[in-house]
Amino acid sequence: MPGGGAFAHADALGRAGQPAQVRAISWRAQNRLHRRYTRLLARRLQRNKAIVAIARELCGFIWELLRTQDCYQAQSPPV
């Protein structure tokens, strides 16, 4: 798909305004999860099992963002 099409456009919109560290973590996650998914399918693992494995690993990346990034920390309401 030349130029990435609608997916590239939607991805660019989602990254707008995100801190550089968040973009770096998300890019690392995207590359790792894609590589792992293709490897699992190459091993002839059932597609649904591969998707569940990737979803579980994605939860780890989300947890990392929530744990390390200040922009995702709960703000205490003003008293």
Order of helices and strands: HHH
Biggest sheet layout: none
Which percent bin holds the helix content? over 70%
The percent range for strand residues is under 5%
Whole-angstrom Rg: 16 Å
Q: With helices defined by DSSP (H or I, 4 residues minimum), what is the helix count?
A: 3
Uncertain spans: none
Number of strands: 0
Mean pLDDT: 83
Overall shape: elongated
Main structural class = mainly alpha
Determine the N-to-C terminus distance.
53 Å
What would you say this structure looks like, in words?
With 79 residues, the protein is mostly helical. The chain has a domain at 19-71. 71% of the residues lie in helices and 0% in strands. The longest helix has 23 residues, at 20-42. It starts with a helix and ends in an 11-residue tail after the last helix.
Helix and strand arrangement:
Layout: H1 5-15, H2 20-42, H3 47-68
Short descriptors:
79 residues; 3 helices
